[in-house]
Amino acid sequence: KVNRRQFIILSTASAVTASVASIAFAQNNRNPFKTQALSPKLYKSAGGLLKLDLETSSRPISLGGKRAYLLGYNGQVPAPRLEAQAGDTVRIRFTNNLTQPTNLHYHGLHVTPVGNADNAFLDIPPKESLTYEFTIPKNHPSGTFWYHPHRHGYVAEQVFAGLAGLFIIRGELDEILEIQAAKEEFLVLQDFALDRNGSIQSPNHMDMMMGREGELLTVNGQIKPTFSIASGGLLRLRFLNASPSRFYRLALENHPFYLIATDGGALAEPVELKELLLAPGERAEMLVRGEREPKQYRLLNLPYNRGGMEMMEDEMGMMGGGSSHMMGGKSQVNPQILATLTYQGSTSTLPLPKQLIPVETLPEPKTVRRLELSMEEEMTPGTGMSFTFNGKAFDPNRINTQVKLNTVEDWELVNVDPDRMDHPFHLHVNPFQVISRNGEPEPYRAWKDTILVRGGETVRIRIPFRDFSGKTVYHCHVLDHEDLGMMGIVNIRA
Ligand code: C2O
Ligand code: CU
């Protein structure tokens, strides 16, 4: 056991040096990146097959008009957008051109976790290739899914370098008339920490403990892009938080927006929101109506405290350091502008849809489990902390949870973190519904695959295990936490 104060003090010196450099960089180059149109290549399925070649590479990438030494899929950040439909077969010939192992995870898709499909245990060494092939079930919901690397130990580093792309399933939500009429935009949110040369800054121990963040906020690889609302005045925004650790608290300045879909697909009806909190890994679809005045709405990222910082700041303060030296936006106090929506038409003529897609009512569960998420002060090499589920750090040879195929279970996710740091919980392959938060029922029913569990909170989720047996994982989607051990294996037995 190591004393927390000792650990913090040990890591403070390097935290301050690294962050002073990054602040100087930001001040000298107020806005060194210019906005540049960048549309990732689109691959659509045809004749029931989505077929493409995908390779990782570490070539320099143009990020907002400047060279950045990121990692890309087919040289792009964000990665190419893939689009398929329920019933399609997906075949991806994947080549790893990195100098470290990697693999692919199809985040949120309800497909098999075994073989060359959404298998988090696959390892693709440098210079090797693998062909992924799986079929999307005929009854798969339409929605906003995504893909990113999932090789344990490298996930945060590779995602922070830019490896992430959208995987869209087209279907029933797209066919609703009002939705069809809306203009569709995809917004992939990524943050980067670059040095003067455009290389990614390496995180120190504290960044890893908190989860690494960068000061450069991008939307589709652009800085503060503008989206126009077409005539008719209805805009459909499809958000993905592809940052490894950053939370986005999104709001449209002086304007409401309407939630129509969450991670796993459509809601039963639009829900008006003043703001939308997107934890790492989460997606959401919003509708925006263009009104006569104002003709421009800024998309803001409001300050959000994801916990754990007070303790850090106290410790830093005692050192005479001061919290403002932290790397990344952890001490963000002002709203940041992510993008601007401009409206040209005379007035909004398109109505909002009244009804979307009914969301299934799940039967009462036979089994209720408790999963404790915790960050403990224990000596693990390099961190001084351990990140666990029910006190156990990830072990690829241990099954943490056994479930039976074709059963419904409730899991109580309990964040027992004494420092009250948020953990977004993600389960592969099996989407779920949130039943309650600290005993309070959720205001509306929705399909999720990643759910925020705040410090001290208990979130109850209901999971139908169906269609696919085999081993898969659940983990914290602050990807440094996952790499440091906050991941468990669930085995679904037929
Ligand atoms: Cu998006 Cu297991 O992750
Ligand atoms: Cu976490």
Automatic annotation (TrEMBL):
Residues 1-26 form the signal peptide. Keywords: Metal-binding, Oxidoreductase, Signal. Residues 63-172, 219-301, 384-491 form the Plastocyanin-like domain. One of its GO terms (molecular function) is oxidoreductase activity. Pfam families: Cu-oxidase (PF00394), Cu-oxidase_2 (PF07731), Cu-oxidase_3 (PF07732). Transmembrane segments: none annotated. This is Oxidoreductase. It comes from Chroococcidiopsis cubana SAG 39.79.
